[in-house]
Amino acid sequence: MYEKLRTHKLNQWLIIHLRYLLGVAFLPSGLTKIVGNRFTQISTDHPIGFFFEGLYQSGIYYNFIGVAQVLAALLLMTQRFATLGAVVYYSLIVNIWLITVSLSFKGTWVITSLMLLACTVLLVWDYQKLKGIFAYNTAPKITLYPDPDRLWQAAGIIYFVFILAMSAFPADRLFPKISAVMVVITFVVSNRIAYKRYKKGRKFIEDINPTMQQTKQ
Question: In terms of Cα–Cα distance, which of 83, 91, 81, 80 is closest to 26?
């Protein structure tokens, strides 16, 4: 069952874009913490505002959380280091989820719950790479599955750079608008190339199967 899910082309495409999506979700909030801006303007009279003001006043720790979020996003979006990115991301999103549940965020806990679920899916997807951690005094058998090729790795880097730029500049400026256009172009072009490769590979299999049957006869 796992192998069938893992080798399905549509599932592979979904996982690649789930990594992009989770990475994008961390970039604006991570960058906000890195540059030292407050995450929220809620009054300190409210428990949520009081908590985030205390977190903001922690200084270097506040910046460190931002760096960790951006790093997790980058690792995920490169695709090449996505397994490590999922591990780092999971440690962060578990804490964020607990904060939103504990402080009774209205609606936000639903979003963080979905993010936690999505990251869990990524860890299950890469279980064959992680199962050695749970092995005791044995050499686990690792099944090798194809990782995303350079097309998706390049697209991930482009997404990271331009979405980070969109988060860094005011929305009414020209550069964020150009960045948004570049993100859309990257999505269209990368998926068009991937689809053409898929159709070409499928046609090759369809063409070679009759030839193999004739050879057997």
Answer: 91
